[in-house]
Structure formats: C-alpha cells, structure tokens
Write a structure and sequence with these properties.
The protein has about 100 residues and is an alpha+beta fold. The protein is built from three helices and three strands. The chain has one domain. It starts with a strand and ends in a 6-residue tail after the last helix.
Length: about 100
C-alpha cells in the first residue's frame, strides 16, 4: 500500500466528505436511535472531533493520504465485500490515475 500521513482537513466540507465516505459506512461507527454517535464510538471519530479545535489531535497515522491525494482511514472495516474491494483499490491506484 502506498500512502503517507495526512494533514487535518482545511474546511468542514472536506470533513463531511470523509465522514460520509468512511465513517458512516464503517462497522466501527455506531449510532444511537436518534442517529447520534455513541459515546464509545470509534476512536478515529473522536480524534476527528477533537482535531476540529486542536490540530495536534489529528490522527495522522490512522487517516492517511494515498499517492493520488485521497484521505483514507486505515481502520475502516465493512461486512460489504464490494465496499471493501473498492476501499482496497484506493491503495492500489497508480500515481496520477483517476
């Protein structure tokens, strides 16, 4: 796998894009009946929330950047085989490929 540590999101849109593509699809992301994350939710989600106010809390070794500049969570897991295949393909993409 080709990747490097990532930097914090530069704006809320980047956060929501990442959250929708990774957190909301991950087995580790647990919600209550009202759709709010549970207190013992994924530690990456908690770190992202803390990093909104303190960049030193950014989980740079868990959220990495592929050679194509895509931020990816290394702890992502899903029971959906097709989704996991797509996830693994993010690391296999050749540099400069779209």
């Amino acid at each position: 796998m080709n990747y490097k540590p990532s930097k914090p999101f530069s704006n809320g849109s980047e956060f929501y894009f990442f959250n929708d593509n990774f957190c909301c699809r991950c087995n580790r992301y647990k919600l209550n009946a009202d759709g709010m994350p549970l207190p013992d939710n994924c530690e990456i989600d908690e770190a992202l929330n803390q990093a909104m106010f303190d960049d030193t809390k950014w989980p740079e070794n868990d959220i990495v950047e592929t050679v194509n500049g895509v931020r990816v969570c290394l702890k992502f897991e899903s029971d959906d085989a097709k989704l996991m295949e797509q996830y693994r393909a993010l690391f296999d993409a050749e540099e400069g490929a779209e």
